[in-house]
Amino acid sequence: ILNVEQSPQSLHVQEGDSTNFTCSFPSSNFYALHWYRWETAKSPEALFVMTLNGDEKKKGRISATLNTKEGYSYLYIKGSQPEDSATYLCALRGKLIFGQGTELSVKP
Amino acid sequence: DGGITQSPKYLFRKEGQNVTLSCEQNLNHDAMYWYRQDPGQGLRLIYYSQIVNDFQKGDIAEGYSVSREKKESFPLTVTSAQKNPTAFYLCASSTTGGTGELFFGEGSRLTVL
Which has the closest alpha carbon to B112: B61, B76, B78, B73? Predict the structure, then answer.
């Protein structure tokens, strides 16, 4: 089974802080990487689909980068807001292996 | 509105009983998936189907069964052979081919008493 690792497991920040977390994956046979946001009592929703080495994607205050050669992706949140509180999941497309997630809590 | 509907949201069953979780989608997606989530763990793939009348085992298929008789439906049966069935179950769908993201239902929480 391929291993997709996310770190940290949880993160507590103050409103206005910028934060980032990591998704690590095997770099061989890369196809695509997904980022999802999963808010409590809701369904996970896709944030980004990343396919090319060096990809950078942005949606509002959230952005992500991809390095397929070294096997990692970073998710950045600029100026965190309480509504950003959620679990952020990455998944390796192909076999659809998910990481354990990073649980983000933003305090007002 | 297009989406995925899972039912029931909460389910209790006694040990030794089979139970079936429903998953319906109206997104016209060919592929459908079942995941299981346990505390402190990522989503683990139970079964997936890329086309009607065909499905494949995921990483933790033992003790589960599925069917895919219609494009829009992919029910999951948790059998009495599943040793630790208490968990949160998520259904998802996607387009096939390409890198399409998953669309998820809201999940079903199964508790075995």
Answer: B78
Beta carbons of B42 and A51 less than 8 Å apart: no
Mutation to test the A interface, candidates B5, B6, B60, B99, most A Cβ within 10 Å: B99
CA separation for the pair B87, B89 (Å, rounded): 6
Instruction: Measure the CA–CA gap between B70 and B49, rounded to whole angstroms.
Output: 11
Q: Terminus-to-terminus CA distance in chain B, angstroms?
A: 36
Asked if residue A59 lies in contact with residue A7, where contact means CB atoms within 8 angstroms, the answer is: no
Q: Please, which residues bridge with residue B7 across strands?
A: B22
pLDDT tens-digit readout, B54-113: 999 999 999 999 999 999 999 999 998 888 999 999 999 998 876 789 999 999 999 998
Q: Do A89 and B48 touch (CB under 8 A)?
A: no
